Amino acid sequence: MSEENLLPDQNGPKMAPIARIINVFISPDETFHSVKKKSSWLLPVILIVIMSIVTGIITAPIGQKIQMTQTEQSFREKGVPQEQQDQILKYFEKYGFAIYLVGIGFQAVMGVGVIAIFSLIMLFFANVVYKAQAKFLQLFELAALSWLIMTLGGLVKSPIIRFRETLDVQFGLAALTPSISKTSFLYSLLTQVDIFNIWTAAVFTLGFAIICSKKTYTVLPVVIPVWLIYFLGIAFMLFKSKVFAI
After folding, report:
1. Which residues contact 126 (CB under 8 A, 6 or more apart)?
2. pLDDT tens sequence across 44-62
3. What is the pLDDT of residue 100?
4. Which of 8, 53, 178, 182 has an alpha carbon within 20 to 30 A of 208's alpha carbon?
5. Strand runs (DSSP E) across the chain, as ranges?
């Protein structure tokens, strides 16, 4: 794709929000030219929240099981008296599902917050490094549309997680390395080398280049380190939670 094709007067026709969502999977460059022309961020954000909540509900029994196991481990490590343990665990058994559902909703909203922060960081690079004069809502919609791919990945995995009764369902390098300890940081890191994660990062990179009116390879020195830091952060949180060992 030549740089001339990325200039503001070559952005193409206006595209409806639902068409942008469909095309982000099959023709992302058309979608992002439309985003550059005029942002329309609400629908992808709503879909991300809905898909995240549905994924959480499907996997809720597994999440509750992990939560209970981690709570019991914490009690043993802290030497909490057995009577007190029984009282707290009884409370969890009675109200745990409702509490977990609230947590699912909170996490979905927090996910949108993460997308907003990511967008702000990339807005800084777009305007300071590439002199793009980009707007926040352009980057926010770009990130939200790209995140739909990663969110879809979670939704696709959710029935498998429910069937296998484990969060350790991988569509990437981690599935090819069964000999690595699931409590290690390396394993958590490998879980991020996932088909949906790579797809998301690649689509976002294409869109970022279009927003900045640059060739794709010229934005790689900025985009790749940001994604690496993001995935390292997720891997570290997974490593500390030990969710794949339960």
Report:
1. 132, 134, 139, 208, 211, 212
2. 999 999 999 999 999 888 8
3. 75
4. 53
5. none
List the domain boundaries for the chain: 11-245
Q: How far apart are CA 25 and CA 151, in angstroms?
A: 13
- Residue 61 pairs in a beta bridge with none
What residue type is 206 in one-letter code? Answer: L
Spatial CA neighbour of 17 closest among 43, 36, 37: 43
Contacts of 119 (CB under 8 A, 6+ apart): 136, 139, 140, 142, 143
CA distance 59 to 191: 18
Q: Is 27 helix (H, G, I), strand (E, B) or coil?
A: coil
Separation between Cα atoms, residue 158 and residue 166, nearest integer Å: 10
pTM: 0.85
pLDDT at 5 over 60: no
Q: Provide the phi-psi class of 213: left if phi over 0, else alpha when psi is between -120 and 50, else beta.
A: left
Per-residue pLDDT, averaged over 158-180, amounts to 90
For residues 113 and 25, what is the distance between their CA atoms, to the nearest angstrom? 23
CB 188 within 8 A of CB 238: yes
CA atoms of 207 and 223, how far apart (whole Å): 11
Q: What percent of the chain clears pLDDT 70, i.e. is strictly above it?
A: 93
Residue whose token pair is 């969110």? 151
Straight-line distance from the first to the last Cα atom of the chain, in angstroms, rounded to the nearest whole number? 47
